[in-house]
Amino acid sequence: MKLNRFTLLVATLLLTTLAAVAQQAPLEPSASNLQKHISYLASDELDGRRTGTAGADEAARYVAGEFARLRLKPGVARYLQPFPYVAGVSLGPNNVLSFGRYSTKENSLQPGTDWLPLAFSANGKVAAGIVFAGYGLTVAELHYDDFLGLNATGKIAIALQGTPDGDNPHGQFSTLENVRWKAIAARPRPTPKFIPDPKSSSPAISISST
Questions:
Q1: Separation of alpha carbons 210 and 201, rounded Å
Q2: pTM here?
Q3: Domain housing 59
Q4: Computed from CA positions of residues 135, 178, 141, 130, in that sequence, does the dihedral angle turn out positive or negative?
Q5: Per-residue model confidence (pLDDT) at position 77
Q6: Quick one: 57 and 110 in the same domain?
Q7: Closest to 191 (Cα-Cα) out of 110, 131, 116
Q8: Which ranges of the chain have pLDDT less than 50?
């Protein structure tokens, strides 16, 4: 009788241990589990997971489900939290770029076709003469300054796209090609606006960006 009870007790402990191991096994890191998660999150089913899309929402729910399975506590009330984001930017109706004293159909460029306001520029209106600033770069460590000796006070600086390196991706100016760097270079100058890649050399220009 005692032997049967002992055997039953051992069997019960063994089954309990196996059940506990079975529950803990999925929590252990493994290459196969990692591959499974990555394969799903990178699959065509989630359609790139762009913010605001159904694929992104499904990916968030999947990750939250894995967090819950691993018994991770959310830092706030729950894993999934709504947040605002910019889904897209469109031009307003009052963007105008024209040459000459007055803005007319004949001397105005078409926004979205002939020109495009920079996304990081502020709304505003300016009318001034123009000055050509080469590539619009100021690089002290390379002893290079397109604004050196240039009278840009109260004028609109126009600069070429690219850098003196041309098409060389490994040139000394390659990291400064982005138009943001050129806008930063022009910022300390008393210039009302900075325009990359000019299409005209007219003596006066007016811009209204809203």
A1: 24
A2: 0.50
A3: 2-69
A4: positive
A5: 84
A6: no
A7: 131
A8: 1-25, 192, 198-210
